[in-house]
Task: inverse folding
């Protein structure tokens, strides 16, 4: 039996799932370190620091550059600089992953309500979605600072469940990070883990999502199987 037999709506992670945003996140991190007269970092390092929002990313970068734990006031001083640099170049080098637009289009045509559930600050989420012309697919957008808690806490997903008046087995979370899978499990919903994104360099399969996909387009095959299972049940 497919775990998505009752699927009614889908929540998508953003960074590492829909958009390969690390090149611009890395450039903003490097520009901030430069402005602070600190040693630089590589894009590869930033790839392993993304996942818990902008403040944690900057904290990891500072702690690497200073080679010690970071004081809150050092982080408070660095954050506006990072936010400024990233805002200036949100989509200079970032790209949509293959087939993202066509899959979102197909899911919309099947009338699935779609949401973004990201740990990215809201002031970056919406401009990025607009820049890639995919904002209109999402009827709900929850960013890292939209609620009191972010993923891996289930709060954004439980918020979505009550907002859309869905049972947990009717919502699916699609993401690249263990934070997505942990949040989904804590909310009691199903999840798909994508292998191509950012997961601290770890195998997403170790987080035990309901399915692992290597490409975004594979989601369509799984959703179609659930669609058929539901139709079958209707006719049985
Ligand atoms: O901003 C981050 O650290 C991660 O963002 P995501 O939740 O969209 O992957
Ligand atoms: Mg992600």
Result:
């Amino acid at each position: 039996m497919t775990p998505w037999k009752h699927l009614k709506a889908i929540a998508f992670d953003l960074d590492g799932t829909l958009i390969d945003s690390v090149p611009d996140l890395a450039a903003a991190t490097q520009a901030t370190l430069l402005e602070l007269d600190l040693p630089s970092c590589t894009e590869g390092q930033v790839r392993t620091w993304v996942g818990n929002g902008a403040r944690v990313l900057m904290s990891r970068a500072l702690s690497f550059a200073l080679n010690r734990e970071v004081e809150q006031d050092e982080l408070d001083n660095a954050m506006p600089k990072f936010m400024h640099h990233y805002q200036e170049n949100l989509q200079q080098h970032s790209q949509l992953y293959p087939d993202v637009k066509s899959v979102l289009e197909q899911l919309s045509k099947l009338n699935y309500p779609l949401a973004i559930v990201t740990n990215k600050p809201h002031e970056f989420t919406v401009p990025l979605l607009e820049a890639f012309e995919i904002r209109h697919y999402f009827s709900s957008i929850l960013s890292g600072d939209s609620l009191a808690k972010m993923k891996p806490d289930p709060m954004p997903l439980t918020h979505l469940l009550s907002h859309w008046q869905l049972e947990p087995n009717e919502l699916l979370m699609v993401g690249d990070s263990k934070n997505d899978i942990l949040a989904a499990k804590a909310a009691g919903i199903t999840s798909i883990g994508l292998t191509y994104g950012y997961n601290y360099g770890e195998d997403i399969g170790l987080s035990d999502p309901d399915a692992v996909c290597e490409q975004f387009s594979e989601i369509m095959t799984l959703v179609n199987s659930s669609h058929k299972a539901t139709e079958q049940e209707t006719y049985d």
Summary: The pocket of 2-phosphoglycolic acid (ligand 1) is lined by residues 13-16, 50-53, 57, 118-120, 177 (CB under 6 Å). The chain has two domains: 9-20+95-235, 22-88.
